[in-house]
Design goal:
By secondary structure, the protein is an alpha/beta fold. Helices cover about 40% and strands about 20% of the residues.
Length: about 425
Protein backbone atom coordinates (compact mmCIF):
# COMPACT_ATOMS: atom_id res chain seq x y z
CA UNK A 1 0.00 0.00 0.00
CA UNK A 2 2.88 2.37 0.81
CA UNK A 3 4.43 1.70 -2.60
CA UNK A 4 1.08 2.37 -4.30
CA UNK A 5 0.66 5.68 -2.48
CA UNK A 6 4.14 6.74 -3.58
CA UNK A 7 3.04 6.36 -7.20
CA UNK A 8 -0.09 8.46 -6.75
CA UNK A 9 -0.35 12.22 -7.10
CA UNK A 10 0.50 13.88 -3.77
CA UNK A 11 -2.21 16.36 -2.83
CA UNK A 12 -2.67 19.11 -0.25
CA UNK A 13 -6.31 20.09 0.30
CA UNK A 14 -7.35 23.59 1.36
CA UNK A 15 -10.62 24.71 2.95
CA UNK A 16 -11.97 28.16 3.69
CA UNK A 17 -14.32 28.40 6.69
CA UNK A 18 -16.69 31.36 6.53
CA UNK A 19 -18.82 32.39 9.48
CA UNK A 20 -22.10 31.97 7.57
CA UNK A 21 -21.23 28.53 6.10
CA UNK A 22 -23.68 25.95 7.53
CA UNK A 23 -21.44 22.98 6.64
CA UNK A 24 -18.67 22.04 9.07
CA UNK A 25 -15.37 22.60 7.31
CA UNK A 26 -13.83 19.35 8.60
CA UNK A 27 -16.83 17.40 7.31
CA UNK A 28 -16.55 19.06 3.91
CA UNK A 29 -12.79 18.38 3.74
CA UNK A 30 -13.36 14.73 4.64
CA UNK A 31 -15.58 14.48 1.56
CA UNK A 32 -13.01 16.39 -0.53
CA UNK A 33 -10.40 13.85 0.56
CA UNK A 34 -12.63 11.04 -0.70
CA UNK A 35 -13.03 12.89 -4.00
CA UNK A 36 -9.24 13.20 -4.34
CA UNK A 37 -8.94 9.47 -3.67
CA UNK A 38 -11.58 8.77 -6.34
CA UNK A 39 -9.55 10.88 -8.78
CA UNK A 40 -6.43 8.81 -8.13
CA UNK A 41 -4.59 11.08 -5.70
CA UNK A 42 -3.51 10.71 -2.09
CA UNK A 43 -4.04 13.52 0.43
CA UNK A 44 -0.85 14.23 2.35
CA UNK A 45 -2.16 17.08 4.47
CA UNK A 46 -4.91 19.69 4.79
CA UNK A 47 -4.97 23.42 5.49
CA UNK A 48 -7.91 25.39 6.89
CA UNK A 49 -8.25 29.18 6.99
CA UNK A 50 -11.04 30.94 8.83
CA UNK A 51 -12.09 34.30 7.36
CA UNK A 52 -15.06 36.61 7.41
CA UNK A 53 -15.13 36.84 3.62
CA UNK A 54 -13.49 35.51 0.44
CA UNK A 55 -10.41 37.29 -0.87
CA UNK A 56 -11.38 38.24 -4.46
CA UNK A 57 -7.77 37.94 -5.71
CA UNK A 58 -6.56 34.80 -3.92
CA UNK A 59 -9.74 33.28 -2.42
CA UNK A 60 -7.71 32.73 0.77
CA UNK A 61 -5.38 35.37 2.23
CA UNK A 62 -2.17 36.08 0.33
CA UNK A 63 -0.14 35.29 3.46
CA UNK A 64 -1.86 31.89 3.75
CA UNK A 65 -1.05 31.18 0.10
CA UNK A 66 2.64 31.88 0.78
CA UNK A 67 2.43 29.59 3.80
CA UNK A 68 0.96 26.83 1.61
CA UNK A 69 3.90 27.23 -0.77
CA UNK A 70 6.27 26.32 2.07
CA UNK A 71 4.10 23.30 3.00
CA UNK A 72 4.26 22.11 -0.61
CA UNK A 73 8.04 22.31 -0.63
CA UNK A 74 8.36 20.49 2.69
CA UNK A 75 5.85 17.76 1.87
CA UNK A 76 6.77 17.32 -1.81
CA UNK A 77 3.22 18.18 -2.93
CA UNK A 78 2.23 17.83 -6.61
CA UNK A 79 -1.21 19.41 -6.53
CA UNK A 80 -3.18 21.76 -4.27
CA UNK A 81 -6.95 21.17 -4.30
CA UNK A 82 -9.30 23.87 -2.99
CA UNK A 83 -12.67 22.96 -1.48
CA UNK A 84 -14.58 25.62 -3.47
CA UNK A 85 -14.84 26.87 -7.03
CA UNK A 86 -12.16 29.39 -7.99
CA UNK A 87 -12.26 32.12 -10.63
CA UNK A 88 -9.72 32.24 -13.44
CA UNK A 89 -7.93 35.15 -11.75
CA UNK A 90 -7.78 33.28 -8.43
CA UNK A 91 -6.36 30.19 -10.16
CA UNK A 92 -3.71 32.28 -11.90
CA UNK A 93 -2.75 34.24 -8.78
CA UNK A 94 -2.54 31.17 -6.55
CA UNK A 95 -0.46 29.26 -9.07
CA UNK A 96 2.02 32.15 -9.27
CA UNK A 97 2.53 32.17 -5.50
CA UNK A 98 2.32 28.46 -4.67
CA UNK A 99 4.07 27.26 -7.85
CA UNK A 100 2.04 24.06 -7.96
CA UNK A 101 -0.89 22.82 -9.99
CA UNK A 102 -4.07 24.35 -8.53
CA UNK A 103 -7.37 22.47 -8.84
CA UNK A 104 -10.70 23.52 -7.34
CA UNK A 105 -13.52 21.28 -6.15
CA UNK A 106 -15.56 21.76 -9.31
CA UNK A 107 -12.71 20.78 -11.61
CA UNK A 108 -11.93 17.80 -9.38
CA UNK A 109 -15.49 16.47 -9.67
CA UNK A 110 -15.51 17.10 -13.42
CA UNK A 111 -12.23 15.20 -13.63
CA UNK A 112 -13.72 12.19 -11.82
CA UNK A 113 -16.76 12.25 -14.10
CA UNK A 114 -14.47 12.28 -17.14
CA UNK A 115 -12.98 8.94 -16.05
CA UNK A 116 -16.33 7.37 -15.08
CA UNK A 117 -18.64 8.16 -18.01
CA UNK A 118 -19.28 5.11 -20.20
CA UNK A 119 -22.16 5.89 -22.56
CA UNK A 120 -21.90 8.30 -25.46
CA UNK A 121 -24.38 10.63 -23.74
CA UNK A 122 -22.49 10.55 -20.45
CA UNK A 123 -19.18 11.35 -22.15
CA UNK A 124 -20.73 14.23 -24.09
CA UNK A 125 -22.37 15.63 -20.96
CA UNK A 126 -19.09 15.59 -19.05
CA UNK A 127 -17.17 17.12 -21.94
CA UNK A 128 -19.76 19.88 -22.27
CA UNK A 129 -19.55 20.67 -18.56
CA UNK A 130 -15.75 20.73 -18.67
CA UNK A 131 -15.61 23.06 -21.66
CA UNK A 132 -18.12 25.46 -20.10
CA UNK A 133 -16.14 25.42 -16.86
CA UNK A 134 -12.73 25.86 -18.46
CA UNK A 135 -13.63 28.45 -21.10
CA UNK A 136 -13.54 31.50 -18.76
CA UNK A 137 -10.49 30.07 -16.95
CA UNK A 138 -8.19 29.35 -19.89
CA UNK A 139 -5.73 32.06 -18.92
CA UNK A 140 -5.46 30.83 -15.35
CA UNK A 141 -5.17 27.17 -16.36
CA UNK A 142 -2.91 27.51 -19.39
CA UNK A 143 0.38 27.16 -17.48
CA UNK A 144 -0.24 23.82 -15.77
CA UNK A 145 -2.18 22.33 -18.67
CA UNK A 146 0.93 22.77 -20.81
CA UNK A 147 3.19 20.91 -18.38
CA UNK A 148 4.00 17.28 -18.86
CA UNK A 149 2.42 14.67 -16.66
CA UNK A 150 -1.28 15.51 -16.76
CA UNK A 151 -2.98 14.08 -13.69
CA UNK A 152 -5.88 15.38 -11.61
CA UNK A 153 -7.78 18.24 -13.22
CA UNK A 154 -6.40 17.72 -16.75
CA UNK A 155 -8.49 14.78 -18.01
CA UNK A 156 -11.31 15.22 -20.46
CA UNK A 157 -11.22 17.47 -23.53
CA UNK A 158 -7.42 17.56 -23.54
CA UNK A 159 -4.94 20.38 -23.49
CA UNK A 160 -4.65 20.66 -27.27
CA UNK A 161 -8.29 21.76 -27.62
CA UNK A 162 -8.04 24.04 -24.60
CA UNK A 163 -5.09 25.81 -26.21
CA UNK A 164 -7.14 26.78 -29.28
CA UNK A 165 -9.05 30.04 -29.50
CA UNK A 166 -12.35 30.67 -27.74
CA UNK A 167 -14.35 30.65 -30.95
CA UNK A 168 -13.27 27.08 -31.64
CA UNK A 169 -14.33 26.02 -28.13
CA UNK A 170 -17.67 27.79 -28.48
CA UNK A 171 -18.27 25.94 -31.78
CA UNK A 172 -17.45 22.66 -30.04
CA UNK A 173 -19.89 23.48 -27.24
CA UNK A 174 -22.64 24.12 -29.79
CA UNK A 175 -21.85 20.85 -31.59
CA UNK A 176 -22.04 18.87 -28.34
CA UNK A 177 -25.31 20.57 -27.37
CA UNK A 178 -26.75 19.63 -30.78
CA UNK A 179 -25.69 15.98 -30.36
CA UNK A 180 -27.19 15.91 -26.86
CA UNK A 181 -30.48 17.29 -28.18
CA UNK A 182 -30.64 14.41 -30.67
CA UNK A 183 -29.94 11.92 -27.90
CA UNK A 184 -32.54 13.59 -25.69
CA UNK A 185 -35.12 13.35 -28.49
CA UNK A 186 -34.48 9.60 -28.75
CA UNK A 187 -34.75 9.29 -24.98
CA UNK A 188 -38.10 11.14 -25.06
CA UNK A 189 -39.40 8.62 -27.60
CA UNK A 190 -38.33 5.71 -25.39
CA UNK A 191 -39.77 7.48 -22.35
CA UNK A 192 -43.16 7.90 -24.04
CA UNK A 193 -43.16 4.20 -24.90
CA UNK A 194 -42.47 3.36 -21.25
CA UNK A 195 -45.29 5.64 -20.12
CA UNK A 196 -47.64 4.10 -22.70
CA UNK A 197 -46.75 0.63 -21.42
CA UNK A 198 -48.35 1.56 -18.06
CA UNK A 199 -45.44 0.02 -16.17
CA UNK A 200 -44.87 1.96 -12.95
CA UNK A 201 -41.48 3.67 -12.72
CA UNK A 202 -39.41 3.80 -9.51
CA UNK A 203 -36.39 6.13 -9.39
CA UNK A 204 -33.44 5.60 -7.05
CA UNK A 205 -31.80 8.83 -5.94
CA UNK A 206 -29.30 9.71 -3.24
CA UNK A 207 -25.80 10.66 -2.32
CA UNK A 208 -22.95 9.09 -4.22
CA UNK A 209 -21.82 5.77 -2.71
CA UNK A 210 -25.04 5.36 -0.71
CA UNK A 211 -25.58 1.94 -2.30
CA UNK A 212 -28.10 2.77 -5.05
CA UNK A 213 -26.58 0.41 -7.60
CA UNK A 214 -26.34 -2.44 -5.08
CA UNK A 215 -30.00 -1.92 -4.20
CA UNK A 216 -31.03 -1.76 -7.85
CA UNK A 217 -29.30 -5.09 -8.48
CA UNK A 218 -31.04 -6.61 -5.46
CA UNK A 219 -34.51 -5.38 -6.49
CA UNK A 220 -34.24 -6.62 -10.07
CA UNK A 221 -32.27 -9.83 -9.55
CA UNK A 222 -35.26 -12.11 -10.14
CA UNK A 223 -36.33 -10.27 -13.31
CA UNK A 224 -33.29 -8.96 -15.22
CA UNK A 225 -30.77 -11.55 -14.09
CA UNK A 226 -27.45 -11.07 -15.85
CA UNK A 227 -28.00 -7.31 -16.32
CA UNK A 228 -26.55 -6.18 -12.99
CA UNK A 229 -25.05 -2.69 -12.91
CA UNK A 230 -21.46 -1.99 -11.86
CA UNK A 231 -20.92 -1.72 -8.09
CA UNK A 232 -17.84 -0.49 -6.26
CA UNK A 233 -17.29 1.14 -2.86
CA UNK A 234 -16.17 4.54 -4.13
CA UNK A 235 -17.61 7.95 -5.00
CA UNK A 236 -19.28 8.15 -8.44
CA UNK A 237 -18.59 4.48 -9.25
CA UNK A 238 -21.43 4.70 -11.78
CA UNK A 239 -22.49 7.75 -13.78
CA UNK A 240 -24.79 6.63 -16.55
CA UNK A 241 -28.47 6.17 -15.83
CA UNK A 242 -29.51 2.50 -15.61
CA UNK A 243 -32.99 1.20 -16.38
CA UNK A 244 -33.95 -2.28 -15.26
CA UNK A 245 -37.07 -4.36 -14.57
CA UNK A 246 -38.21 -5.47 -11.14
CA UNK A 247 -41.23 -7.45 -10.01
CA UNK A 248 -43.68 -6.54 -7.25
CA UNK A 249 -44.82 -9.11 -4.67
CA UNK A 250 -48.19 -9.38 -6.43
CA UNK A 251 -46.40 -10.20 -9.65
CA UNK A 252 -46.54 -7.03 -11.71
CA UNK A 253 -43.38 -5.85 -13.46
CA UNK A 254 -42.14 -2.33 -12.78
CA UNK A 255 -39.20 -0.26 -14.04
CA UNK A 256 -36.26 0.80 -11.88
CA UNK A 257 -34.10 3.75 -12.87
CA UNK A 258 -30.82 4.70 -11.18
CA UNK A 259 -29.51 8.28 -11.36
CA UNK A 260 -26.12 9.93 -10.93
CA UNK A 261 -25.15 10.25 -7.28
CA UNK A 262 -25.22 13.63 -5.60
CA UNK A 263 -22.52 15.36 -3.58
CA UNK A 264 -22.41 18.63 -1.65
CA UNK A 265 -21.45 21.66 -3.75
CA UNK A 266 -22.31 19.72 -6.91
CA UNK A 267 -20.97 21.90 -9.76
CA UNK A 268 -23.59 24.00 -11.53
CA UNK A 269 -22.20 22.92 -14.89
CA UNK A 270 -22.81 19.28 -13.99
CA UNK A 271 -26.33 19.87 -12.72
CA UNK A 272 -27.12 21.57 -16.04
CA UNK A 273 -25.36 18.94 -18.15
CA UNK A 274 -27.02 15.97 -16.44
CA UNK A 275 -30.44 17.59 -16.11
CA UNK A 276 -31.79 15.54 -19.02
CA UNK A 277 -30.60 12.34 -17.35
CA UNK A 278 -31.88 13.34 -13.93
CA UNK A 279 -35.25 14.24 -15.44
CA UNK A 280 -35.99 10.51 -15.42
CA UNK A 281 -36.93 11.27 -11.80
CA UNK A 282 -39.57 13.74 -13.01
CA UNK A 283 -41.43 10.92 -14.78
CA UNK A 284 -41.17 8.44 -11.89
CA UNK A 285 -44.23 7.29 -9.98
CA UNK A 286 -42.19 6.73 -6.80
CA UNK A 287 -38.81 7.91 -5.54
CA UNK A 288 -36.53 5.79 -3.37
CA UNK A 289 -34.19 8.16 -1.52
CA UNK A 290 -31.25 5.91 -0.61
CA UNK A 291 -29.21 7.05 2.41
CA UNK A 292 -25.95 5.63 3.77
CA UNK A 293 -26.98 5.04 7.38
CA UNK A 294 -23.36 4.43 8.41
CA UNK A 295 -22.18 7.89 7.32
CA UNK A 296 -21.60 10.30 10.19
CA UNK A 297 -22.76 13.24 8.05
CA UNK A 298 -26.14 11.71 7.35
CA UNK A 299 -28.20 14.93 7.69
CA UNK A 300 -25.94 16.83 5.27
CA UNK A 301 -26.31 14.05 2.71
CA UNK A 302 -30.10 13.89 3.11
CA UNK A 303 -30.44 17.67 2.77
CA UNK A 304 -28.13 17.78 -0.28
CA UNK A 305 -30.29 15.22 -2.09
CA UNK A 306 -33.53 16.94 -1.11
CA UNK A 307 -32.17 20.26 -2.40
CA UNK A 308 -31.48 18.72 -5.83
CA UNK A 309 -34.94 17.09 -5.87
CA UNK A 310 -36.42 20.49 -4.98
CA UNK A 311 -34.63 22.02 -7.99
CA UNK A 312 -36.14 19.26 -10.15
CA UNK A 313 -39.57 20.06 -8.62
CA UNK A 314 -40.32 16.45 -7.66
CA UNK A 315 -40.67 16.71 -3.87
CA UNK A 316 -44.45 16.30 -4.24
CA UNK A 317 -44.00 12.73 -5.53
CA UNK A 318 -44.43 9.68 -3.25
CA UNK A 319 -41.07 8.99 -1.61
CA UNK A 320 -39.55 6.33 0.64
CA UNK A 321 -36.34 7.12 2.52
CA UNK A 322 -34.28 3.93 2.42
CA UNK A 323 -31.64 3.84 5.16
CA UNK A 324 -29.10 1.46 3.63
CA UNK A 325 -25.98 -0.26 5.07
CA UNK A 326 -27.74 -1.07 8.36
CA UNK A 327 -25.31 -3.98 8.69
CA UNK A 328 -22.72 -1.35 9.65
CA UNK A 329 -24.71 0.57 12.27
CA UNK A 330 -26.75 -0.08 15.42
CA UNK A 331 -30.29 1.16 14.70
CA UNK A 332 -30.56 2.32 18.31
CA UNK A 333 -27.62 4.68 17.74
CA UNK A 334 -28.79 6.01 14.38
CA UNK A 335 -29.38 9.76 14.68
CA UNK A 336 -30.94 11.86 11.91
CA UNK A 337 -33.24 14.85 11.52
CA UNK A 338 -36.70 13.30 11.45
CA UNK A 339 -38.13 16.49 9.92
CA UNK A 340 -36.29 15.64 6.70
CA UNK A 341 -37.73 12.12 6.50
CA UNK A 342 -41.24 10.84 5.82
CA UNK A 343 -41.94 7.17 5.04
CA UNK A 344 -38.81 5.17 5.78
CA UNK A 345 -37.33 1.70 6.01
CA UNK A 346 -34.01 0.35 7.31
CA UNK A 347 -32.24 -2.17 5.07
CA UNK A 348 -28.94 -3.67 4.01
CA UNK A 349 -28.88 -4.23 0.25
CA UNK A 350 -25.55 -6.03 0.54
CA UNK A 351 -26.74 -8.46 3.25
CA UNK A 352 -30.33 -8.81 1.97
CA UNK A 353 -31.88 -7.32 5.13
CA UNK A 354 -35.52 -6.15 4.79
CA UNK A 355 -35.46 -6.28 0.97
CA UNK A 356 -38.77 -8.16 0.83
CA UNK A 357 -40.28 -5.61 3.21
CA UNK A 358 -39.07 -2.83 0.91
CA UNK A 359 -40.72 -4.52 -2.07
CA UNK A 360 -44.00 -4.65 -0.16
CA UNK A 361 -43.61 -0.97 0.71
CA UNK A 362 -42.93 -0.07 -2.93
CA UNK A 363 -46.10 -1.90 -3.95
CA UNK A 364 -48.16 -0.04 -1.33
CA UNK A 365 -46.73 3.38 -2.24
CA UNK A 366 -47.09 3.11 -6.00
CA UNK A 367 -50.17 5.06 -7.09
CA UNK A 368 -51.71 2.02 -8.79
CA UNK A 369 -54.48 -0.18 -7.53
CA UNK A 370 -54.70 -3.89 -8.30
CA UNK A 371 -57.56 -6.33 -8.64
CA UNK A 372 -57.24 -10.10 -8.40
CA UNK A 373 -59.04 -11.54 -11.43
CA UNK A 374 -59.46 -14.64 -13.56
CA UNK A 375 -58.99 -14.21 -17.31
CA UNK A 376 -59.63 -16.21 -20.45
CA UNK A 377 -57.54 -15.39 -23.52
CA UNK A 378 -58.69 -16.94 -26.83
CA UNK A 379 -55.96 -18.73 -28.81
CA UNK A 380 -56.19 -16.15 -31.62
CA UNK A 381 -55.26 -13.37 -29.14
CA UNK A 382 -51.73 -14.59 -28.45
CA UNK A 383 -50.34 -11.03 -28.20
CA UNK A 384 -52.52 -10.34 -25.14
CA UNK A 385 -51.40 -13.55 -23.45
CA UNK A 386 -47.75 -12.64 -24.14
CA UNK A 387 -48.32 -9.18 -22.62
CA UNK A 388 -49.84 -10.63 -19.45
CA UNK A 389 -47.11 -13.22 -19.01
CA UNK A 390 -44.39 -10.60 -19.56
CA UNK A 391 -45.79 -8.01 -17.16
CA UNK A 392 -47.55 -10.05 -14.48
CA UNK A 393 -47.05 -13.16 -12.39
CA UNK A 394 -49.51 -15.68 -13.79
CA UNK A 395 -51.15 -18.22 -11.47
CA UNK A 396 -53.10 -21.41 -12.13
CA UNK A 397 -52.42 -21.43 -15.89
CA UNK A 398 -54.68 -23.85 -17.77
CA UNK A 399 -55.14 -24.49 -21.50
CA UNK A 400 -58.75 -25.37 -22.31
CA UNK A 401 -60.56 -25.92 -25.59
CA UNK A 402 -61.79 -22.31 -25.79
CA UNK A 403 -58.62 -20.55 -24.63
CA UNK A 404 -56.05 -20.08 -21.89
CA UNK A 405 -57.29 -19.50 -18.34
CA UNK A 406 -55.24 -17.97 -15.48
CA UNK A 407 -55.41 -15.78 -12.36
CA UNK A 408 -53.39 -12.61 -11.66
CA UNK A 409 -53.25 -9.30 -9.80
CA UNK A 410 -53.86 -6.69 -12.53
CA UNK A 411 -53.59 -2.90 -12.29
CA UNK A 412 -56.65 -0.74 -12.95
CA UNK A 413 -55.39 0.57 -16.29
CA UNK A 414 -55.03 -2.93 -17.72
CA UNK A 415 -58.18 -4.03 -15.88
CA UNK A 416 -60.20 -1.50 -17.88
CA UNK A 417 -58.27 -2.11 -21.11
CA UNK A 418 -58.78 -5.91 -21.06
CA UNK A 419 -62.11 -6.02 -19.23
CA UNK A 420 -63.67 -8.14 -22.00
CA UNK A 421 -61.25 -10.99 -21.19
CA UNK A 422 -61.95 -10.97 -17.42
CA UNK A 423 -64.40 -13.69 -16.39
CA UNK A 424 -64.15 -13.42 -12.60
CA UNK A 425 -63.22 -10.71 -10.06
CA UNK A 426 -62.20 -11.83 -6.57
Amino acid sequence: MEKLNNLRERVLIVGLALEDDPVEIEVSLDELQELVHAAGGVVISRVIQRRESINPAYFIGKGKAEEIKLYCQELDIDTVVFNDELSGAQLRNLEKIIDRKIVDRTNLILDIFATRAVSKEGKLQVKLAQLKYRLPRLVGMRDYLSREGGGIGTRGPGEQKLETDRRHILREIKNIERHLKDIEANRDIKRRKRIDSNLPIVALVGYTNAGKSTLLNKLMEDEDRGKEVFVKDMLFATLDTSLRRGRLPKGQVYLLTDTVGFVSKLPTHLVEAFKGTMEETVYADLILHVVDASNKDIDIQIKTTLDVLKDLEVLDKPMITVFNKMDKVDIGKLIYDSKLVGDKIFISAKNDINIDELKEMIQEKLPQEFKFVKMRIPYDEQAILDYMMTNYEIKDLQHEADGTYFNLHINLVDFNRYRDYIIEIN
